[in-house]
Amino acid sequence: DADVTQTPRNRITKTGKRIMLECSQTKGHDRMYWYRQDPGLGLRLIYYSFDVKDINKGEISDGYSVSRQAQAKFSLSLESAIPNQTALYFCATSDIGFFGNTGELFFGEGSRLTVL
Amino acid sequence: DAKTTQPNSMESNEEEPVHLPCNHSTISGTDYIHWYRQLPSQGPEYVIHGLTSNVNNRMASLAIAEDRKSSTLILHRATLRDAAVYYCILRDADQAGTALIFGKGTTLSVSS
Fold first, then answer.
1. How far is residue A57's CA from residue A24's CA, in Å, rounded to a whole number?
2. Is the pLDDT of residue A103 over 70?
3. Residue in A with minimal Cα distance to B50
4. Strands, E assignment, B1-112
5. Chain B CB within 8 Å of residue A55 CB
6. Is the Cβ–Cβ distance between A7 and A111 less than 8 Å?
7. A107 vs A99, which has greater pLDDT?
8. What is the pLDDT of residues A38-65, one digit of tens each?
9. What are the residues facing A40 on neighbouring strands?
10. What does the alpha-carbon distance between residue B76 and residue B48 come to, in Å, rounded to a whole number?
11. Which 3 state secondary structure label does DSSP give B81?
12. Which end of chain B is flanked by fewer CB atoms within 10 Å, N or C?
């Protein structure tokens, strides 16, 4: 089983629908992240969480919300999906690293979302 | 975090060395240099990171300029499997409460 699991792997939905992407990890890491990838734009950070009670906005948080239900679970929600949220979404985890340097990021396999 | 500049794309032949450059002229003294790569249809994976000294691991080597304003990821013998997008990222050790910010990276093509 993968250390970082994302569900669903593929989803097609319609404009205005509520969508939740889920991420679970078995690495025991405190830090979890959601990134979005669009062709030609690289990865952009949406939200991140450094422990269960910590939520931080990233570069492009508008239109998204997150929930950190437990150390191992971090969900990304689109309350009312719109077509320009069509993208590949990645969840990642890391430990705290050392000397204040974030540890290695471990990514899931991605969730491809299409909003019609 | 300071910004990095990478070429959009590079090409290489199989079994030849590949040098992937990264410029970071505004790097601060506490910035670590991280490299990740993303194989087709996969999430990014960690390659290597360093602060001042050159670093080697089983995947690659990282050569850091003496003034730290640039660095080079070295793949000693490229294989077809090394075709990927390579990201150079700076991470400020004084800002442990922030996350890694990826750019667009360099797309490496490897020909047989």
1. 20
2. yes
3. A101
4. 9-13, 18-23, 31-38, 45-50, 55-56, 61-64, 70-75, 84-92, 106-111
5. no
6. yes
7. A107
8. 987 888 999 999 889 899 999 899 999 9
9. none
10. 14
11. helix
12. C
**CA distance to partner chain A, nearest, from residue B98 (Å):** 9
Question: Token digits for B45?
Answer: 């994976």
| Spatial CB neighbours of B19, under 8 Å, sequence gap ≥ 6 | B72, B73, B74
Say if the Cβ atoms of B99 and A42 lie within 8 Å. Answer: no
Facing residues of A34 across strands? Answer: A47, A91
Neighbouring C-beta atoms of residue A30, cutoff 10 Å: 16
> Which one, of A34, A52, A8, lies nearest residue A105 by Cα?
A34
The position carrying tokens 């492009």 is A60
C-alpha B95/C-alpha A50 separation (Å) is: 13
Tokens of A110: 């991605």
- Secondary structure class of A112 (helix, strand, coil): strand
Determine the average pLDDT of the residues in B3-10: 94
> What size, in residues, is chain B?
112
Q: What is the pLDDT of residues B35-86, one digit of tens each?
A: 999 999 899 999 999 999 999 999 999 999 999 999 999 999 999 999 999 9
Of A58, A99, A107, the CB nearest to B45: A107
- The answer to whether the CB of B73 falls within 8 A of the CB of B60 is yes
Tokens of B101: 């910010």
CA distance A40 to B103: 10
Give the pLDDT confidence of A8-35 residue by residue, as tens digits. Answer: 999 999 999 999 999 999 999 989 999 9
